[in-house]
Design a protein that fits this description.
Layout (H helix, E strand, L loop, with lengths): L6 E6 L3 E8 L13 E7 L1 H11 L4 E3 L1 E4 L2 H13 L6 E4 L5 E8 L5 E4 L15 H4 L2 E6 L5 H12 L3 E5 L6 H5 L4 E5 H8 L4 H12 L7 E5 L5 E5 L2 E5 L13 H15 L3 H15 L12 H10 L6
Parallel strand pairs: 1-4, 1-9, 2-7, 5-6, 9-10, 10-11, 11-12
Antiparallel strand pairs: 2-3, 7-8, 12-13, 13-14
Helix pairs in contact: 1-8, 6-7, 8-9
């Protein structure tokens, strides 16, 4: 088994093709509306996070399976354009890739997402090879692919840091969390998992549970425009979200936050600096329609932070 670290981040999780449009307002039943803007982009939680990693200048690799049709080929081609390594993607004949239709209401900024069901090849435990996972410095997973749990086990056994984009999927989310060092969860997941209406209390309950397994655990709960809340053995802190003028679309902000966060892990930054950086990258993403179009480069993040009196990466 090779110990060569060819990649900064290896990702196992959801990838998709997104069709996105901005509506002047949400339509009524049986009504036609002209969309003000339309785009086709790659999407998916881990997939979009890896694109953020690449835009920031690091080396990501996606491990997964997609159909050998126009959607699957688009996924691979888009990764190639963005600098995400695709050598560990299997194209499966007779299947497809996830597709999502995202409609953004210009009046409210709210989104409606429609996902067709189709033959999507899963990434199962048998498809995960240790030699592939361990070529990265950090593993990023989400719970949508069943094989992500096996990838986390492999990384954990080897002492490789594991970060998870935690959201509800399946019947036993706790099992996969046990092998994760950085649990970066939405406030919705925190509420669901802990059965509490307060996401900060939920974060504390998750940390209380997980820190029994390791004192090195880190729990982060993202709260949209309310910022984020972090807990670790060194204590806790809240960070407000960066405000942006003329927000176009918040699709993919959470995914981009995860990508920027694992970039910070690779850099060896402390938790506050990492969370602040991830928040800035996520805020800049809102400039354009879609989960990927607005993802900034490192050269864009630096002046954004400097202008706000923050560190320069």
């Amino acid at each position: 088994m090779t110990s060569e670290k060819k990649f900064d981040v290896v990702g196992v999780g959801c990838c998709a093709v997104d069709y996105l449009g901005i509506l002047p307002r949400f339509p009524k039943m049986d009504e036609k509306l002209w969309m003000e803007e339309f785009t086709k982009q790659g999407g998916g939680m881990v997939a979009t996070a890896l694109v953020a990693v690449a835009r920031l200048g690091a080396r990501p690799c996606y491990v997964g399976r997609v159909g050998n049709d126009e959607f699957g080929r688009f996924v691979v081609e888009d990764f190639d354009r963005e600098g995400v390594d695709t050598s560990e993607i299997e194209l499966v004949k007779g299947t497809s890739a996830r597709v999502a239709f995202v409609f953004v209401d210009k009046e409210t900024g709210s989104r409606t997402i429609l996902i067709p069901t189709q033959d999507i090849p899963p990434v199962e435990a048998k498809h995960i090879r240790p030699e592939t996972i361990l070529r990265g410095k950090v593993l990023l997973i989400d719970p949508l692919e069943p094989g992500a749990a096996r990838a986390a086990e492999i990384a954990k056994e080897a002492g490789m840091p594991v970060a998870i984009d935690a959201e509800y999927h399946g019947d036993d989310p706790g099992r996969i969390l046990d092998n994760c060092d950085y649990i970066i969860a939405s406030e919705g997941f925190a509420r669901y998992y802990t059965k509490t209406d307060d996401p900060i209390q939920g974060a504390r309950l998750i940390f209380e549970e997980q820190s029994k397994l390791s004192e090195e655990k880190v729990v982060v709960v993202t709260r949209g425009d309310q910022g984020s809340y972090t807990l670790s053995k060194d204590g806790s802190f809240e960070l407000p979200a960066f405000t942006m003028d003329n927000v176009v679309d918040t699709t993919g902000c959470g995914d981009v936050f995860h990508g920027a966060y694992v970039y910070g892990i690779v850099q060896g930054w402390d938790l506050r600096r990492t969370a602040e950086f991830a928040s800035a990258v996520s805020a800049l993403k809102t400039r354009k329609l879609g989960g990927r179009a607005g993802i900034p480069t490192l050269s864009e993040v630096r002046p954004f932070l400097k202008k706000r009196g923050k560190f320069q990466s």
